[in-house]
């Protein structure tokens, strides 16, 4: 199916032979294929529409580079716009003026929060920080145990109070413990929850009220489909989300949810997860993901050579 | 609470339920091209994917012609029928061994709900009076064994386990022996989450499958692929890859208690003929329902349960 799309695209693009400036019909034709590519990559339908409209306007009348066909030129513009939409903002984590810095991870069930907590802790460790992880998931069976195993693996302390204590108190306790131990970063692992689960969303707000996070990161599975729009909306409306971690990019998903989440929250994607092994999180490369979302490897490599 | 009610509840929670729009939006309008275009968009928003969206719209168009429907208000019923057509040969029954233990192998990518679904199935089978054994075949993920043991506690089922890092095939080998020795009816085998594009992990799964086939003739009686209902088009690639290495015979679609509609099952059922057997509608033990194509289609197309 994916190959089918790029074949169509190639065909559509090769039909456009006019040189000089991009005409309205050049752009129109190429954008139809771009739209399909974005939809196949799971970019939200409405985000696709806005994006396509905006890029179409921008593209018409632009000069076509000598070495490119008009269709390739359109894809080039689309690629640039995608990359600039997904990137641009400050990627670095905000550190508290007065330690410990608090990083809180939130998201749907199974997105990869606990794994990301350990990877993040390892990244901090590598930068000479002293992280502590807080086990604030009191719901999922063996969630605390999971964090403890990971903590032992990377030699990072884990603070927990069992499953009968309010997560707010666990977060508070972790802060005290961090000060006692001289840890300068506290990473709070929270339970996975649905964005429509009001009491659990409320719980996150309560944690954040008592232990304000310097970074409140929304963890999103890169394989998420159209629903990413609801997830991003709900989490960023009920919490001051500061950034996004995109997980499971080691799969073969096109990862269009990233564009959706970026467009909806306006918050930068700060890190990506590329595996189950606990390794430092990788920084996000907007241009690579833009290529992946477009799924137009051949066209894009042509353009890069041009 | 049945499947239909739970879906309804899920839809009610969503401010912008994808299909919830169907009922209101199309009332009082003519069934014309503009409306079909909007329908296509609604379907895309449910992760149905481009090809199946077109297939469904085409089907609706034909049904409209046949029934001489002209009013937009009739669209939900027509779409419901089209969806039922798409899911036509979805056989939701679970295969059972003629004699000896029945073994179900649960597979899927990371974090989709395999272990939780096993807990729910164990609870369900236990309530039906069956003796159920759980095999902790995920020896990789941190605390995967402890997680399954917690589900064993909750459902009152014994868990056969080795320690972390052990060979999963050996765990399942032991579980089969234990099931024979104890006269268990059902073995539910957990496996580690694995991305379908990782050749070594898929090879491991194929090895597990072979051990099962060898040790227990006729088994695995079902290989259930767990698909996260919030997944987009990648689920199709998952289905294809798991089908190849482990002869997937059915799906469990999880996390349909949120706002995701799990529309991606439509192309999977249509293209790969893998039936949906169960749906997951929450994190608790009884949040698992047998799949029914008509209930699914109705819950999606007519969430208010009006007519149809
Ligand atoms: N391949 C791959 N697997 C990942 C990645 N991140 C997490 N996982 C796996 O995804 C599954 C779920 O990860 P968790 O970290 O437990 O997810 P979670 O969000 O904490 O889950 P809940 O606490 O249940 O909500 C596990 O099997 C992880 O090993 C990633 O970047 N790539
Ligand atoms: N809301 C909701 N959450 C679910 C459902 N099924 C599973 N979950 C949650 O999803 C998360 C992951 O579930 P697991 O059962 O650990 O998933 P898994 O496929 O075994 O994960 P790995 O073994 O890490 O690959 C947990 O937090 C579960 O509670 C469901 O139907 N609805
Ligand atoms: Mg977790
Ligand atoms: Mg599991």
TrEMBL record, chain B:
Signal peptide residue numbers: none
GO cellular component: cytoplasm; plasma membrane
GO BP, sorted A to Z: SRP-dependent cotranslational protein targeting to membrane
SRP54-type proteins GTP-binding domain: residues covered: 101-302
Catalytic reaction annotation: GTP + H2O = GDP + phosphate + H(+)
Single GO term (MF): GTPase activity
SUPFAM superfamilies for this protein: Domain of the SRP/SRP receptor G-proteins, P-loop containing nucleoside triphosphate hydrolases
Domain Signal recognition particle SRP54 helical bundle: 7-87
Subcellular location: Cell membrane; Cytoplasm
CDD domains: FtsY
Catalytic activity, EC: 3.6.5.4
Keywords: Cell membrane, Cytoplasm, GTP-binding, Hydrolase, Membrane, Nucleotide-binding, Receptor
Assigned protein family: Belongs to the GTP-binding SRP family. FtsY subfamily.
Protein name: Signal recognition particle receptor FtsY
UniProt organism field: Alicyclobacillus mengziensis
Gene giving rise to this polypeptide: ftsY
């Amino acid at each position: 199916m994916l190959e089918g799309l790029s074949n169509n695209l190639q065909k559509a693009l090769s039909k456009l032979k006019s040189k000089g400036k991009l005409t309205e019909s050049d752009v129109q034709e190429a954008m139809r294929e771009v739209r399909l590519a974005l939809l196949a990559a799971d970019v939200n339908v409405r985000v696709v529409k806005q994006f396509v409209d905006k890029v179409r306007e921008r593209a018409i009348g632009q000069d076509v580079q000598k070495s490119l066909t008009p269709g390739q030129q359109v894809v080039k513009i689309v690629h640039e716009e995608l990359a600039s939409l997904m990137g641009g903002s400050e990627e670095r984590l905000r550190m508290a003026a007065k330690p410990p810095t608090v990083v809180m991870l939130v998201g749907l069930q199974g997105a990869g929060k606990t794994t990301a907590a350990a990877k993040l802790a390892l990244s901090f460790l590598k930068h000479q920080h002293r992280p502590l992880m807080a086990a604030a998931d009191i719901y999922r069976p063996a969630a605390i145990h999971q964090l403890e195993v990971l903590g032992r693996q990377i030699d990072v302390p884990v603070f927990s109070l069992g499953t009968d204590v309010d997560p707010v108190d666990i977060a508070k306790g972790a802060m005290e413990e961090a000060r006692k131990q001289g840890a300068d970063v506290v990473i709070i692992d929270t339970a996975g929850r649905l964005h429509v689960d009001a009491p659990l969303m409320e719980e996150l707000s309560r944690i954040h009220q008592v232990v304000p996070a310097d970074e409140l990161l929304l963890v999103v599975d890169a394989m998420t489909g159209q629903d990413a729009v609801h997830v991003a909306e709900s989490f960023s409306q009920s919490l001051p989300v500061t950034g996004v971690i995109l997980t499971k990019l080691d799969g073969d998903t096109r990862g269009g949810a990233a564009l959706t989440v970026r467009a909806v929250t306006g918050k930068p994607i700060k890190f990506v997860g590329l595996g189950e092994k606990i390794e430092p999180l990788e920084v996000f490369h907007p241009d690579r993901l833009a290529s992946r979302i477009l799924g137009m490897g051949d066209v894009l490599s042509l353009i890069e050579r041009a | 609470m049945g499947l239909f009610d739970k879906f309804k509840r899920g839809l009610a929670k969503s401010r912008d339920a994808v299909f919830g729009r169907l009922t209101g939006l199309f009332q009082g309008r003519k069934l014309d091209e503009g409306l079909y275009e909007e329908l296509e968009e609604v379907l895309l928003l449910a992760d149905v994917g481009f090809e199946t969206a077109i297939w469904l719209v085409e089907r609706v168009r034909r049904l409209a012609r046949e029934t001489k429907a002209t009013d937009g208000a009739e669209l939900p019923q027509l779409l419901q029928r089209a969806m039922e057509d798409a899911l036509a040969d979805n056989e939701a029954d679970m295969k059972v061994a003629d004699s000896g233990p029945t073994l179900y192998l649960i597979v899927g990518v990371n974090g989709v709900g395999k272990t939780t679904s096993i807990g729910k199935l164990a609870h369900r089978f236990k309530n039906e009076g069956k003796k159920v054994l759980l095999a902790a075949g995920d020896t990789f993920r941190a605390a995967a064994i402890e997680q399954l043991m917690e589900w064993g506690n909750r459902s009152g089922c014994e868990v056969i386990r080795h320690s972390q890092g052990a060979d999963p095939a050996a765990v399942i080998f032991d579980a089969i022996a234990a099931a024979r020795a104890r006269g268990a009816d059902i073995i539910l085998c957990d496996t580690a989450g694995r991305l379908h594009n990782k050749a070594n992990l898929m090879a491991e799964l194929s090895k597990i499958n072979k051990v099962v086939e060898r040790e227990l003739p006729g088994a695995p009686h079902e290989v259930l692929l767990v698909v996260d209902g919030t997944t987009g088009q990648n689920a199709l690639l998952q289905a294809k890859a798991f089908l190849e290495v482990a002869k997937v015979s059915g799906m469990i679609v999880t996390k349909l208690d949120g706002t995701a509609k799990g529309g991606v099952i439509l192309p999977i059922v249509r293209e790969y003929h893998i039936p949906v057997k169960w749906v997951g509608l929450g994190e608790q033990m009884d949040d698992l329902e047998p799949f029914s194509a008509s209930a699914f289609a109705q819950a999606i197309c007519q969430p208010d349960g009006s007519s149809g």
